[in-house]
Amino acid sequence: MAGCGSTGKEVEEPVEPPAAEEPAPGTPAPDPLEEPPPPEGPVVVEPTEPEPVPEQPRPPPPMFQPGFHQALRWSYSTGSVTFRLRVPVGRAGERVRLAFRAGDGNLVLRKATIAQAGPNGSLASAPVAVTFSGTPGFSVGARTRVVSDPVSLPVGFRDELAVSFEVQGALAVSAIHALPGSQVRSGAYASVTGPLGGTGWDRAVGLATVEVEGPPARAFVALGDSITEGYIDEQDDTRLAWPSVAEAQLGVPFANAGVSGQGFYDALRNLDAEVLSLQGITDCVILLGTNDLSALDVSGLQSRMNTLVSRLQPFCRTWVGTLLPKEKSNHGDYEVVKRQRLELNAWIRATFPDVIDFEAVTRQPDNVHLFLDGLEVDGIHPSAAGHRVMATEAARVLREAGVQPGPGVLLPAEGQP
Fold first, then answer.
1. 101-138: b (≥16 Cβ within 10 Å) or e
2. Exposed (0-12), middle (13-18) or buried (19+): which is 99, by Cβ within 10 Å?
3. What is the CATH number of domain 217-404?
4. Of the residues 38, 253, 340, 343, which has the maximum number of CB atoms within 10 A of its CB?
5. 330 touches 292 (CB < 8 A)
6. Which residues pair with 163 in a beta bridge?
């Protein structure tokens, strides 16, 4: 008989798991975190190549480029005197070189110094002696250009330098009054730190170029006639000429190779001495042809412009400017002058890829032959206001083409002095 509560089914007995094997007496239990023993024998480690470090581009070495230049087409002869020229410089750097140029005869330079310019012809820093192949001076023949040894002198953009030099003989000189604030005195005074004394002198003379060493950058030279050189009213100042004003607006050097009275023939004949002798120029701006109107026909004007551009192209990027309005003619038939100027300007706009249209910003809207009011002094030459308008247009065109301020140059914000 089944027991009480039986269901009539068989009940499975639970199966006990097998007992873990006991370690032999005296054997330590394994540590579950213990590292496995190293393999027997030598361990061979395969070498791995390090990740290559990208090479950083090296900055280009510093170079000398013009911070100031004048063509100095004419000649001035003198006895033993000291000139002290007050010179604006459009490039920053740590060293400078000076280039002097003789006039139409022999020139002896006995001593030269350079310093920061102070007020009233004085020096704002100690004068630094300038040498030429290790010597304090030189003696050369007519029209010779002499470049100094490098001189250590920190220079900022648009600093004013005082270049003093004791000379005798024929010096190359500008036609106009380009450097007011300069002085000349009979005798030897290149090392005087106070005002030089003597008399005022405002023509660029002897000193053709100031080169400044710094990082390579854009550097311009302007080729032209009295308009580019900066003639305004016989009380002139290269700082008011459109190349210098454009320099201040752009923050790049703008050397001035304008020569009063010249046309294409003189510019081509003197190109080697006055322009191609400059080192480090990247861009050339041409504003020429006004003095050739009526003397050449339009095809002759075009031919000489093409020749000038062709000679410059291996040296620099060329920019061609249109001729300004001309309200009268001092030479030739005025009706011919007007017609040729319009034809030449139309040809310039249609021919050259890089054009600065000076006419467009200086002409009256209803008369292409007249200046806007206040922009001229005699119907031919622009006023100081006219130069500012020209400079602003040049700066606009060049800035839109990618010209940036030179290294270390901080320009004031727009609208600030």
1. bbbeeebebbbbbbbbbbeebebeeebeebebeeeebb
2. buried
3. 3.40.50.1110
4. 253
5. no
6. 85, 114
Answer yes or no: is pLDDT of 44 > 70. no
Residue length of the chain: 417
Question: Residue for token digits 């003197």?
Answer: 270
The residue assigned the tokens 């005197």 is 81
- pLDDT tens-place string over residues 304-323: 999 999 999 999 999 999 99
> Helix, strand, or coil here: 290?
helix
What's the DSSP call for residue 247?
A: H
The model's pLDDT over 115-157, given as tens digits with 9 standing for 90+, comes to 999 999 999 999 999 999 999 999 999 999 999 999 999 999 9
Closest CA to 321 of 243, 269, 240: 243
For the entire predicted model, the pTM comes to 0.86
Instruction: Decide if pLDDT at 239 tops 50.
Output: yes
The CA distances from residue 352 to 283, 303, 325, in Å, are 14, 13, 20
For residue 351 the two structure tokens come to 């021919």
Residues 6 or more apart in contact with residue 29 via CB below 8 angstroms: 23
Q: Residue 164, SS3?
A: strand
Domain ranges of the chain: 62-214, 217-404
Q: Which CATH number fits domain 62-214: 2.60.40, 2.60.120, 1.10.490, 1.10.10?
A: 2.60.120
Q: Is 24 exposed, middle or buried (0-12, 13-18, 19+ CB in 10 A)?
A: exposed
How far from each other are the two terminal CA atoms of the chain, in whole angstroms?
Answer: 124
What are the DSSP calls for 112-153, one per residue?
Answer: EEEEEB-GGG-BSS--EE--BTTBS-EEE-TT-EEEPPPEEE
Angle at 222 between CA 216 and CA 225, to 5 degrees: 165
User: How many Cβ atoms from other residues are within 10 Å of residue 194's Cβ?
Assistant: 11
